[in-house]
Amino acid sequence: MNVETLSKALAASCGAKLQSNVVAYGEVTIEVSPADALAVFETLRDEEILAFDQLIDVCGVDYLTYGNVEWDTETSSTSGFSRGVEPSTGARLRFGDDLTYKNTDRPRFAAVYHLMSMVHNHRLRVRVFCEDDDVPVVKSVIELWPSANWFEREAFDLYGILFDGHPDLRRILTDYGFVGHPFRKDFPLIGHVEMKYDEQQKRVVYQPVSIEPRVLVPRVIRDDGRFDDQTEDPEEEASVATENTDA
User: Fold this and answer.
1) Residue 163 vs residue 98, higher pLDDT
2) What is the pLDDT of residue 89?
3) CB atoms within 10 A of CB 186
4) Are 21 and 50 within 8 A, CB to CB?
5) Nearest-5° angle of CA 245, CA 246, CA 247?
6) Which end of the chain has less Cβ packing within 10 Å, N or C?
7) Which residues, 6+ apart, have CB-to-CB distance to 114 below 8 Å?
8) Can you give the pLDDT at residue 193?
9) Residue closest to 217 by CA, chosen among 62, 70, 65, 67
């Protein structure tokens, strides 16, 4: 079954419960509301023509700064930065800073599910947006696919997304006393607290972070000469090159 046929089968099986059904880059992505999510997931698993019997992953997404031009990679500066050129928000977010750019075109948080059919050998991406940005909640799919257990715990730990019905929703990657959710776009790059071993108390203690605030912007310095200072006269350089060739 190719992706176009799969998209049509999804439309026929799920009907109006699909908020979007997009074929792009050789993949199918559908969106469903939190209210319809479980019903759609049951259809995806049990409908014979679909038969998505395996849950590959559950990811959290934070769309707080989605579309921010600071991360536009189509252009580069004269100093060789490939992105994060304009110091407007997230790339230079420091402790205590607040984001001045907020995406308002969609809800902030979403849970994204990657499904696979072992029977038909096709894949699907399902996106479920959380209705409340302050308390993002979606239904747990652990009863449908037990492999969702740790995936949902990870999304909760890193993004703060709550999965209603999960039997043991605890942090899985960060420490027990960790403050905040580190994959959220407004989480400071240097964190909130740090830990160390205290010789006097003979135990590990937590304290406010003492790291010097610094800029952490991924960049690419290109060595092809495009950013070299043009201090020489181009005609003079060409003349010198010709003389060197003749010699």
Assistant:
1) 163
2) 43
3) 17
4) no
5) 90
6) C
7) 55, 56, 57, 58, 59, 123, 124, 125
8) 80
9) 70
Note the pLDDT tens digit of each residue in 209-234: 877 655 555 555 555 555 555 555 55
Long-range contacts of the stretch 186-191 (C-beta < 8 A, 24+): 186/64, 186/93, 186/98, 186/99, 188/93, 188/94, 188/95, 188/96, 188/97, 189/93, 189/94, 189/216, 190/94, 190/95, 190/214
Q: Which residues contact residue 81 at a Cβ distance below 8 angstroms, ignoring those fewer than 6 apart?
A: 217, 219, 220
Amino acid at position 242, single letter: T
Position 120 scores a pLDDT of: 93
| 81: pLDDT strictly greater than 50 | no
**Beta-strand pair 122-129/109-117:** antiparallel
Round the average pLDDT of the chain to a whole number and report it.
80
Average pLDDT over residues 111-137: 95
Whole-angstrom distance between the N-terminal and C-terminal Cα of the chain? 66
Stated pTM of the model:
0.72
- Using DSSP bridges, classify how beta strands 137-139 and 162-164 pair: parallel, antiparallel or unpaired: parallel
Q: Report the share of the chain in percent with pLDDT over 90.
A: 55
Question: What number of other Cβ atoms are within 10 A of residue 50's Cβ?
Answer: 22
Structure tokens of 13? 């099986």
Residue written as tokens 């799920």? 14
By residue count, the chain amounts to: 247
How many Cα atoms within 13 Å fall on the side-chain side of residue 72?
12
Sign of the dihedral defined by the CA atoms of residues 33, 59, 97, 72, in that order: negative
